[in-house]
């Protein structure tokens, strides 16, 4: 059985994951309108992943006798300036998600809820991967700068990253 503090904190994380999914969906749509299909595909896939993170929480809370509550979400921005700014936003967003996961881990230890602690380890490793991926992409973008040809190649490159990451996802 979940403590009410743990249940409340896990429910708040449902909103965090759902809002992440919406932000990346909005990034996908924006990138698509700019003609960057690779970046759009990457963001669409990322948005789906976040929805999966959210669903995992919903199932877990209900499985442990709690009630997963689906609430309203904040609307994401509609445009993101440049790709550099967009991927910087993605990176910063992932860092803040990692912080909220760490807070959940802290609460689980405080309330001696080892089942939830165990459940959260998946999110801990996921965040390490996501932050690393965002950092790799940012490094690439910083190398390219405003070079049009470079951006074209980057768009293709990022498509591979999508494929590679979903392939790893499937073997998990
Ligand atoms: Fe990318 O964040 Fe979910 O966990």
Provide an overview of this structure.
The chain is an all-alpha fold and 172 residues long. The chain has one domain: Ferritin (Up-down Bundle), CATH 1.20.1260.10. It contains 5 helices and no strands. Helix 1 runs antiparallel to helix 2, helix 1 runs antiparallel to helix 3 and helix 3 packs antiparallel against helix 4. It is elongated and about 55 Å long. The mean pLDDT is 92. It binds hydroxy diiron-OXO moiety.
| Multimeric status of the protein | single chain
Count of DSSP H/I helices = 5
User: Helix- and strand-based class?
Assistant: mainly alpha
Q: First CA to last CA: what distance? A: 27 Å
How is the biggest beta sheet arranged? none
Radius of gyration: 17 Å
Q: How many domains?
A: 1
What's the pLDDT, averaged over the residues? 92
What descriptive keywords fit this protein?
5 helices, mainly alpha, Ferritin, about 0% strand, binds hydroxy diiron-OXO moiety, about 170 residues
Secondary structure: elements and pairs:
Layout: H1 4-33, H2 37-63, H3 83-110, H4 114-144, H5 148-171
The structure holds hydroxy diiron-OXO moiety.
The site of hydroxy diiron-OXO moiety has 10 residues, from helix 1, helix 2, helix 3 and helix 4.
């Amino acid at each position: 059985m979940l403590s009410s503090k743990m249940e409340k904190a896990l429910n708040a994380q449902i909103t965090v994951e759902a809002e992440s999914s919406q932000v990346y969906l909005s990034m996908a749509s924006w990138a698509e309108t700019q003609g960057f299909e690779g970046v759009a595909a990457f963001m669409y896939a990322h948005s789906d992943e976040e929805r999966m993170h959210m669903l995992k929480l919903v199932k877990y809370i209900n499985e442990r006798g709690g009630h997963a509550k689906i609430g309203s979400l904040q609307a994401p921005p509609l445009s993101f300036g440049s790709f550099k700014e967009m991927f910087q936003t993605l990176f910063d967003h992932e860092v803040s998600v990692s912080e909220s996961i760490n807070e959940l881990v802290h609460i689980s230890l405080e309330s001696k809820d080892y089942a939830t602690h165990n459940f959260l380890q998946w999110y801990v490793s996921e965040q390490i991967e996501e932050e690393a991926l965002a950092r790799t992409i940012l490094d690439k973008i910083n190398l390219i700068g405003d070079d049009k040809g470079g951006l074209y190649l980057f768009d293709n490159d990022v498509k591979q990253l999508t494929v590679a990451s979903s392939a790893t996802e499937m073997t998990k």
